[in-house]
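In practice, a research group might receive sequence data for several interacting partners and want a quick structural hypothesis before committing to experiments. The following worked case mirrors that situation: the sequences arrive first, and a predicted assembly follows.
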Amino acid sequence: MTPTSRTLARGPVWPLFVAVAFAAVALTALVLIENQKLLGAALAITAAVCFCAARFGGVAATEVAASENPWLLRGLLTLASLAVIFVLRDDNFGLLMLATVLIYATICLGLTVQMGYAGLTNFAAAAFAGTGGYTAAMLGQQGGLPDALVLVCGGLVAVFIGSLLILPVLRTRGHYGALTTMAFGVMFNVFLDANDFFGGPQGLKLPGINLFGWDFTNDIHIFGLVLSSYVNYVILTGILTALAMIFVGLLDRSWVGVWFDVVRLDETAASVFGLKIAYWKVLAFTLGNFLAGLMGAVYAKMTGFIAPANFTFGDSLVMVSIVILGGIGNRWGVLPAALIVVLLPEKLQFIQEYRLIFYAVLVIAILTMRPDGLVARRVRKLHTEASA
Amino acid sequence: MGMIGQHLLNGLMQGTIYGLVAMGFTIFFGVMNVIKFSHGDVLTLGAFGGLVAVWAANALGLSVPLQFIVALCVAMALTAVVGAGISHFLIMPLRNAPPLNMLLMTMMVGTAIREAIRLFFPNGTNPQRFPELLPAGGFNIGPSFFRTDAIILIIAGAASIGAVYWIINHSKFGLAMRAVAEDTETARVMGINFGRIIPLTFALGSITAGFAGMIYALYYSEINYSMGLLLAVIGFTAAIVGGLGNIWGAIIGGYLFAGLQTFVVAAMPSMSDYKNVFAFVLIIVLITWRPTGLLAERGSERV
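A structural hypothesis for the assembly, expressed as tokens:
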């Protein structure tokens, strides 16, 4: 989070290359390897390398290099993503999982703004995503609207539904605040289960995305290569995740981020300094819900099917777990956390059935042993340049 | 008109269960300032423990009243031990963590219990039939039919609420508990064994869950692994609406929620699938109107 500092000596750049390359290779390996023993070994090696990197300053060096060369980081990440997509080009299941991870990560970025920055509890993230998904499904049945608008509408309807909750969210705090979103999340599910208009428990079907003539259901033919149609979704979700990441990062680095922090840490102090608490809370809540609704719409379009069972209170809990697991308020932590929570149970067949208990034990372990999450949020340094 | 008695009884029954669950939430919050969301799943665990006890007692050839007593004792003992264990091993180490972490932790403990029942109980995914241990039959007052077992259960539930109230307000243990709730440091200076009071408090709160679980099982004659989740959300809602930390508030909240549900079912039978939707909407409206519950917590913010 440190702004580029001209007075400090520049660190070496190579850790950044190594880190991105390692992440790409590890990700590809985890998606590709089917053999359970090999997969276990790959996981162990990844964990060991991460642990050693954290222990011997590799992570710190990477962070310095990344904050000093933001454009190099973005370029490298783009290249690495393209490389991963290229390697996985005909692995439908792997690509679908990657896109799902990206969707979860983006929804959790929205949650990070709400919970990590502004300090609002939201136990209904899955319900807001579901709102977006159902909006896409209903608009798809009507037809006529271009898909780009349909996706945005998903986000906007989630914002609208969320705005009905704004008053209770603003008036309540702490546990009382947790209740309002929780009640909404449970209510959303009960309502959809009982309602025939929205397809009831069986849900609705919806067609794939077609953005400005770019049809997502077709395979991509490029340079004589055939890429699976799911590459489309990985690219779209990747772009959306990247945009959300950049946007949330800018938000965090700007004064708005500081104001969010003040509102979260001490409302009394914030109001003494003339901050309109309600305004910033509404902004954070709205932004988070928009991301959830938008990505929910993408998810529904991608899987071609939407049902209440995909957006239960349990799913909201999984999303909150991702945020806590990654380190609340740290936008980079969301990516590995989403990867662990979404990908691991899909890959490790023996925990498929036990996935919820696996999440539960994992989160309990993290909360007891590493309460700040995998990648703890750094304390903001506002005066590096002034004091140096 | 015959339905009114039926609805009334049903609402009272549900209100008793919700009130018992909410009372647990409010006890934990009062003493430790935590929301123990695994409470509902501890309830499920109690009901399943009772079921196993009935099976065992049946295999041993005990008479039905004895089976009932064994099941009740096992359910309450099991929940007491599990509740105390959760407080000692999971909640105490985290007591200085942010409230959100604690809430998430207990939710995950609940998920672990729920999933463990689903996966490891024989045929745990499907609902289990709970044997009828209370006298069947009933009687008519005017056009309304009243089930005997329901009357017994409501009385037992009300009695247990009274018993917990007595323990908290009139026993030495209750005095120690309230002292810890009021001011932990001072209570310890006064020689109250903090390390013992906390697990005991959690045991007490969890026993009420075990009791509620048995009431649920005996009334509906069917239990399933996920019944605790909705009960926890409703119990938490009831505790919040009443005002956290306030025993009477929790009980009022429980009956209020049951009343709302029953009203929807009675007034709009075609909408009975939506009874929880209506109840939750009303609760959200209520909490917006009174952000710290009906019987609000006292105290102002000091700068």
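Before designing any experiment, note the following. The mean pLDDT of chain A is 82. Residues 91-319 of chain A form one domain.
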